[in-house]
Amino acid sequence: MRKRKPKKRIIQPDPVFNDTLVTQFVNNMMQSGKKNTSYQIFYDAMDIVKEKTGENPHEIWKAAIDTVMPGVEVRSKRVGGATFQIPVELRAERKMSVAMKWLIKYSRLRSGKGMADKLSSEIIAASKGEGAAVKKKEDTHRMAESNRAFAHFRA
Predict the structure, then answer these.
(1) Are 70 and 98 in contact (CB under 8 A)?
(2) How far apart (Å, rounded) are the C-alpha atoms in residues 13 and 23?
(3) What are the extents of the domains in the chain?
(4) pLDDT at 155
(5) Contact 68/102 with Cβ under 8 angstroms?
(6) Does domain 20-153 have CATH number 2.40.30.60?
């Protein structure tokens, strides 16, 4: 068991949009410690979003994250030999983190040339309420709703 809660790390805002959420997104997208590559992919994706929609890409990206953000999730819990899927409300930080991870995951799984292209396509789709990340959110909510009867096991 942990003695005390770990300190929250302070994330520096990104250079272009001056937003800490962008830095968090880039950190989640980063592989093998290549942060500059990650930033380049993100900003290229934002340029593609601006080109395709003609609107502010930062606003579209925020709308996409808000659309993908889940309210509840299911956690497994063993009760007397049986495993139940128990719906649990999410904290604000976890909602944001899960939304970012889903956007990145389903961008990677998309077909297309280059991560920037895939990411921009997923962001545009999510901001319109479609795409694989939004489907994942709906599936998660549906699962939580169907297991609502086990909510009293929450502890």
Answers:
(1) yes
(2) 6
(3) 20-153
(4) 64
(5) yes
(6) no
pLDDT tens, 79-93?
A: 888 888 888 899 999
Cα–Cα–Cα angle for 122, 127, 129, nearest 5°?
95
Residue carrying the six token digits 């389903």:
106
Q: What is the CA radius of gyration of the chain?
A: 18
Distance CA 27, CA 120 (A): 17
pTM: 0.90
Q: Do residues 106 and 131 lie in contact, with contact meaning Cβ atoms separated by under 8 Å? A: yes
First to last CA, the chain: 17
**119: Cβ–Cβ under 8 A, 6 or more apart, which residues?**
29, 41, 42, 45, 103, 104, 107
pLDDT in tens, 16-52: 999 999 999 999 999 999 999 999 999 999 999 999 9
The four Cα atoms 15, 95, 53, 49 give a dihedral, to 10 degrees, of 40
